[in-house]
Amino acid sequence: LRKRRIGVWRYLEYLPVKDPKKIVSLWEGGTPLYKCDNLAKKLGLKELYVKNEGANPTGSFKDRGMTMGTTRANELGVEIIGCASTGNTSASLAAYTAKSNKKCIVLLPSGNVALGKLAQAMFYGAKVIQINGNFDDAMDMVKELALQGKIYLLNSINPFRLEGQKTIGFEICDQLDWEVPDRVILPVGNAGNISAIWKGFKEFKETGIIDKLPKMTGIQAEGAKPIVEAFKKGVKEIIPEEHPETIATAIRIGNPVNYTKAMDAIYSSNGFADSVNDEEITKAQKLLAQTEGIFVEPASAASIAGLIKLIETGVIDKNEKIVCITTGNGLKDPDAAIRVSDKPIEIECDMDILNDVINE
Ligand code: F0G
Measured from the CB, is residue 192 less than 6 Å from ligand 1? Predict the structure, then answer.
């Protein structure tokens, strides 16, 4: 593992592992950091990067948390691991429990999980339970199960998850040749990732590897924005949103468990929080695909939509060096993509018709 030049375990010295032989890995991390000149030019920005976490083994950043979380579970000798999920966490946990020969139980909000994610959890062999409630209800239920000692909980309330995810911050520094971006923009749901990445940057600064910190900028969906509301009021406490709603089902969360850490990341980095609506999300999703060739799921596009909004509102200075994190692969949610795309043209097998169509 020490010989690995890319990925989460390149940073073994920074991770809380007692016994490296217990590490569970599917070669997570080492995701591309794209320099997005086409999009930067369109938006009038000097330097824009996209860190594409959709390139992880199960297609989202959750794999970084799960390699660490299941490694910890291995060290502890637990047999059954569970989580609540809007989809990606369950897909990732199901894969890592398969790899480590453990049982997996996932609770999902019925009808609000993207097709690809559901397929993954089912196919990797998890016990998939859909509840007639939302993610926050599922979260309450798995917390209760964990307290009863029935499962080891691997939602981001488990600090070992965040330890794995902090490597996103490490990798960004590494890939920028130790130059720290001015700002990191990412979608916020249960608020674990923004907290984790902030921790990564801080650890690199504390150990003298980097000399400054980026402004952590969290973007929520208009219908699920308790953190943005608190930020706008300048307070640290959130008021949970009882009925979260957004096309970006991954961040359809009203009561984020890590809000305290997230508020700290935003305030102490001199960062920002804002929300974007479904239309802005969809537009940004298409724009990223059609200018940079990066296909992300709707929640991930919230970071790009947020970038555009914050340029328009003057929060972002166009000379900033910016990294947007796209958290999950577009293939996770084919329905969302097809719904907003032009329909394919259907024709008979006839060369004349084909020529007519391509000349249109
Ligand atoms: N983007 C994607 C694609 C996600 O799946 C999630 C969270 C987030 C962003 C938000 O990250 O929760 O750390 O603030 N998905 C969780 C899940 C809740 O169950 O898959 P966060």
Answer: yes
